[in-house]
């Protein structure tokens, strides 16, 4: 086999470079309420379930309901995206090669369905084909990343076993979710250096990567497990 049975992509910071938009929206919210919001605070929310992030703001003194905080942040990110999708290096090319090879692909994100729909429509127009066979958004899940539920949902929708599939992530939270679901997990550092997490296959970038490289990551994990 030269390709994995399926590939499951995170969105923010993995496929699309939206992390600066999220961080800017969070900075504005914190500043509006006089909260000292640091780079460490920003990093702590990368890849986190949006409602968990909202509860962080509430605990820090933002007098808003969690749903209202999420709606505000999502609205600002959608406005910042406009009609463009700032892709991460090599991400769209790898996605296109997977679609051309007929490999099932899922999007597994803590962003809301509104953002998923925007991204899916824009990528479909760019690629000329539906970009994903399944999508799981943050508001689809009872328990968000780092719980395995988002990835388990996607695997069930694809009808694929975790042992034969690959997840691609850029955050500690997301990588923990994928690992807990039993997936070979490739970490591509962006806002945080996810390569530091044990069990993650480190790729500096998706540029130049192929479906065969993804399959090789599964085989490498299996070989390491057999020697353990």
Describe the protein's architecture and organization.
There is one protein chain. This protein has about 230 residues and is an alpha/beta fold. It has two domains: about 5-15 and about 85-225, Rossmann fold; about 20-80, Orthogonal Bundle (DNA polymerase, domain 1), CATH 1.10.150. It is about 45% helix and about 10% strand. The protein has helices at about 20-30, 40-45, 50-60, 65-80, 90-100, 115-125, 150-160, 170-180, 210-225, and strands at about 5-10, 105-110, 135, 165-170, 185, 200. The chain has a six-stranded parallel β-sheet, with helices on both faces. The longest helix has 17 residues, at about 210-225. It starts with 5 loop residues before the first strand and ends with a helix. The model has no long low-confidence stretch (mean pLDDT about 90).
Descriptors:
228 residues; alpha/beta; Rossmann fold; DNA polymerase, domain 1; 2 domains; 6 strands; 47% helix
Using the CA coordinates, give the radius of gyration.
17 Å
Number of domains: 2
SS-based class: alpha/beta
Number of strands: 6
CATH topology of the largest domain: Rossmann fold
Spatial order of strands in the largest sheet? 3-2-1-4-5-6
Provide the CATH superfamily of the largest domain.
HAD superfamily/HAD-like
Q: How many helical stretches? A: 9
Helix fraction bin? 40-55%
CATH class wording of the largest domain: Alpha Beta
